[in-house]
Design goal:
By secondary structure, the chain is of the alpha/beta class. It is 37% helix and 16% strand. It has a six-stranded parallel β-sheet with strand order 2-1-3-4-5-6. A six-stranded parallel β-sheet has the order 9-8-7-10-11-12, with helices on both faces. Helix 8 links the parallel strand 10 and strand 11. The longest helix is centred in the last third of the chain and has 18 residues.
């Protein structure tokens, strides 16, 4: 079989199962859209946990419709094994898109079984990396960490980004919230509270501190809260996970947005937060933990506020933004300009064009 028998502009994109309109789904959609705008045909395959052989056979049958294979990898390591397709598709070019590492699981528990699983997944990823022609990373920090764990060939950093036109599906805020959001100063956080690097406990303590000074500030925490104690306070509203489009509507209603994280114990903080980009893209003043690449987007006092997670510091910054609407508006506008300039669709298109164009 010659190279000419494959569709040179076809890309097979292997992605994990996920909820429709989740943050992961939105991220994949954004990346797929940008690649398609470069003139590539993207065929997305979403394997189910027990369908490895069936999925491989399906991919084999459509092998002539693509030349490149992109596999989206994260800390769960579920899709790493699809790199073995290289053994039956030697003429195809395999590319990894890495979003995380197995050591993230050690932040949840450190049982012998978990440690053994992490060791096994790391070894497997290191071996399989020999079959990969190039690797895309979501942050410089992740690339630096990966160099110590695997063979890195042709690395490219393509961070998360916003789209030029943010057209979304129609969504509505739940009816009971409409009344609550009226004449209330909203401090918003959203994410997965089961992940230990999300500083939910810090936010709860900040809310307790602020309640003594201002009763009109409401903290809204969005995400399934079955994994952490929902400390009941009059100024905290807990909401279950919701579609990204609905969460976007809450961002528009918010007065301050939080991107607070704990330092990780077993890996460097290499995450590149989509919610931080979305906060900034809607012109909201953001208070973010000074960790990882946050300082590249947030210049304290100019495009938002950075914090060391001290509750008093965060509370004072929230109260300042409530008192000084002009400052809050200025920070939001500056943040919007920065994210629009540095993490836009054009940036992503050029990055993917360089990466895909250099890989035959």
């Amino acid at each position: 079989m010659t190279n000419s028998s494959h569709n040179a502009k076809g890309i097979l994109y292997i992605t994990p199962p996920r909820m429709l309109d989740s943050a992961v789904s939105v991220n994949i959609t954004r990346r797929t859209l940008v690649i398609r705008k470069l003139g590539y045909t993207v065929i997305e395959v979403i394997p189910t946990p027990s369908s490895f052989i069936r999925t491989c056979l399906r991919i084999w049958k459509m092998r002539k419709s693509f030349k490149r294979v992109i596999i989206r990898l994260d800390g769960a390591c579920v899709l790493d094994k699809y790199t073995l397709l290289k053994c039956i598709l030697p003429q195809h070019t395999f590319i990894w898109e890495i979003h995380g590492y197995p050591e993230e699981r050690l932040e949840l528990d450190q049982t012998f079984r978990t440690k053994l699983g992490v060791l096994k997944n790391n070894l497997r990823r290191r071996i399989l990396s020999c079959l990969v022609a190039a690797t895309i990373f979501i942050s410089e920090e992740l690339l630096l960490y990966a160099r110590t764990k695997m063979f890195v060939h042709n690395p490219f950093v393509i961070q998360n980004f916003i789209l030029s036109s943010r057209k979304t599906r129609v969504a509505t805020i739940p009816a009971p919230l409409h009344h609550i959001l009226q004449n209330t100063f909203i401090v918003l956080w959203g994410g997965d509270p089961s992940l230990p690097w999300n500083a939910i406990d810090t936010i709860q303590r900040v809310a307790a501190r602020i309640s003594a000074d201002d009763k009109t500030i409401l903290f809204i925490l969005v995400g399934s809260h079955h994994f952490y104690p929902a400390i009941q306070r009059e100024n905290i509203l807990y909401l279950d996970a919701m579609p990204h489009t609905a969460f976007t509507l809450l961002i528009k209603k918010a007065d301050v947005c939080l991107a607070l994280y704990h330092k990780l114990n077993h890996v460097p903080f290499y995450l590149h937060s989509m919610k931080l980009l979305d906060y900034l893209a809607h012109g909201k003043p953001v208070i973010a933990t000074n960790i990882g690449s946050a300082h590249k987007l947030i210049r304290s006092g100019i495009t938002g506020f950075l914090t060391n997670n001290a509750e008093k510091d965060i509370a004072n910054k929230i109260l300042l933004l409530k008192r000084d609407a002009a400052l809050a508006r200025k920070l939001g506008q500056n943040g919007l300009r920065v994210v629009s300039a540095l993490h836009n669709e054009s940036f992503a298109r050029m990055a993917y064009n360089t990466a895909l164009g250099s890989i035959e």
